[in-house]
Design a protein that fits this description.
heterodimer; A: mainly beta; 6-stranded mixed sheet; B: about 110 residues; 11 strands
Chain lengths: ~110, ~110
């Protein structure tokens, strides 16, 4: 079982739709969680951090469920420009070190 | 622009050659990370530095791979005796401290002929 798992998709949605991605992690001692966006053949860019109480940034909402060991990302009112791969990152605690561990990414395609 | 910079952007070399990549992190960031990414996968952690100390190495990092950060500023990643399977994007990232978000460079795309 991979340490951080994501459904690779692709999620194919029309403009204006709401779409949600989940990401599960195996290490219950994990600290710090993030969502990144990666466009084709580009570097990952930070989308948002994920806080215990949940947080929102415009059309994007991130949530953390420590009991079930998953984080989620909700995108409302999808735009064509949201088409990208969304990567979740979990800082796994290994022997006192924080090891950032990425999921394989979920591909989102927003169509007109 | 004071973001993370990587050099070169692309490297094509023959199998068996040695290659070295450079990363310049954001100046006030203490932590520097190296990742490898292949098509359809997320970045895989290779190693990280806190200032000049290399604190963690993935078991993905075979003895052909070595990384340094001599003065706690820029870092180099060297691959000796390259193999076909080394073809990938090599990404560098930096962060202010542990648990903080990382900022990535553009990456170095390595192709082994």
């Amino acid at each position: 079982r991979k340490e951080v798992e994501q459904d690779p998709g692709p999620f194919n949605v029309p403009e204006g739709a709401t779409v949600a991605f989940n990401c599960t992690y195996s290490n219950s001692a994990s600290q710090s969680f993030f969502w990144y966006r990666q466009d084709c053949r580009k570097e990952p860019k930070l989308l948002m951090s994920v806080y215990s109480s949940g947080n929102e940034d415009g059309r994007f909402t991130a949530q953390l469920n420590r009991a079930s060991q998953y984080i989620s990302l909700l995108i409302r009112d999808s735009k064509l420009s949201d088409s990208a791969t969304y990567l979740c990152v979990v800082n796994m605690v290994v022997g006192g070190s924080y090891i950032p561990t990425f999921g394989r990414g979920t591909s989102l395609i927003v169509h007109p | 622009d004071t973001g993370v910079s990587q050099d070169p952007r692309h490297k094509i070399t023959k199998r068996g050659q040695n290659v070295t990549f450079r990363c310049d992190p954001i100046s006030e960031h203490n932590r520097l990370y190296w990742y490898r990414q292949t098509l359809g996968q997320g970045p895989e952690f290779l190693t990280y530095f806190q200032n000049e100390a290399q604190l963690e190495k993935s078991r993905l990092l075979s003895d052909r791979f070595s990384a340094e950060r001599p003065k706690g500023s820029f870092s180099t990643l060297e691959i000796q005796r390259t193999e076909q399977g080394d073809s990938a994007m090599y990404l560098c990232a930096s962060s202010q401290d542990r648990g903080q978000p990382q900022h990535f460079g553009d990456g170095t795309r390595l192709s082994i002929l």
